[in-house]
Design brief:
Elements: E1 4-12, E2 23-31, E3 35-39, H1 46-53, E4 61-66, E5 69-70, H2 75-85, E6 86-89, H3 101-113, H4 116-129, H5 145-157, E7 163-167, H6 175-187, E8 194-198, H7 202-205, E9 210-215, E10 218-221
Parallel strand pairs: 3-8, 3-9, 6-7, 7-8
Antiparallel strand pairs: 1-2, 1-4, 4-5, 9-10
Helix pairs in contact: 3-4, 3-5, 4-5, 5-6
The protein binds adenosine-5'-triphosphate and magnesium ion (MG).
Adenosine-5'-triphosphate is lined by residues 14, 16, 22, 40, 42-48.
Length: 226
């Protein structure tokens, strides 16, 4: 299956100030099997774009199409598409604080499959893959920043997403942990998957197949992937 995300003439204005186009007529195709980095100054629209791609927010005008699904502003439908197809990793506060690492990881799968034992088993496997098996019963506030991010990656993977979106996933980590998280993230690359991450770190941005530079709500492609 060939997955893609097509965005066409995307514009975003927030209610607070309708004279500012935070995203200004952006068109682009993201292709499966590729990694994309988004760089750009603070306020240039990186998180806004990722929030549109994750179907959490809606564009003011323009079109988003995910593998032939034309996205409408139907919350229930979009929540389902997100749950099944999209894994999201934020800079921090990814995990629900009242739930253990294991619960945080298996719950999104349980919601879809309704099969607890299978969800728990799968979660344990993913947690093992990020080297966190000894911490499954820890709560987020009992984990370090890097450990929280590794659990967040396991959680983002639980429904085997076609799309992984990461918004400055190492923004609050030291450089060793940042390297580990990006190594884990790049290991998730496969031919059916699109990985898009925003970062302020040039070194990690350069590791992507395609670099997208944002400035004042517009994008520029630095090295189109071949
Ligand atoms: N909910 C909101 N309401 C009004 N304006 C917003 C809202 N969210 C973001 N903005 C504005 O949109 C612009 C882009 O913000 P965005 O968070 O996308 O930037 P960014 O590139 O992710 O920056 P950073 O590198 O600091 O994370 C900013 O000028 C911001 O003030
Ligand atoms: Mg941001």
């Amino acid at each position: 299956m060939n997955n893609y995300i097509k965005i066409k003439n995307l514009t975003k204005k927030y209610d607070k100030n309708k004279s500012i186009k935070v995203l200004n007529d952006i068109s682009f195709n993201f292709e499966s099997g590729k990694t994309y980095s988004i760089m750009g100054p603070s306020g240039s629209g990186k998180s806004t774009l990722l929030n549109l791609l994750s179907l959490i927010d809606h564009p003011t005008t323009g079109l988003i199409e995910i593998s032939s699904n034309k996205i409408k502003s139907n919350k229930v439908e979009n929540d389902l598409i997100r749950a099944k197809k999209i894994g999201i990793i934020y800079q921090d506060k990814n995990l629900l604080s009242d739930f253990t690492a294991l619960e945080n990881v298996y719950l999104p799968n349980l919601l879809i499959t309704k099969e607890k034992q299978k969800s728990v088993d799968l979660a344990k496997k993913l947690i093992k893959n990020v080297g966190m098996s000894t911490r499954i019963n820890y709560f987020p506030n009992e984990l370090s920043g890097g450990e929280n991010q590794r659990i967040a990656i396991a959680r983002a993977l639980i429904n085997d997403p076609d799309i992984i979106l990461a918004d400055e996933p190492t923004g609050s980590l030291d450089s060793d942990n940042a390297k580990l998280i990006f190594k884990t993230l790049f290991n998730l690359k496969n031919k059916n998957r699109i990985i898009i991450f925003a970062t302020h770190n040039r070194y990690f941005a350069n590791m992507a197949d395609c670099k997208i530079m944002m400035n004042d709500g517009s994008i520029q492609i630095i090295n189109a992937a071949t």
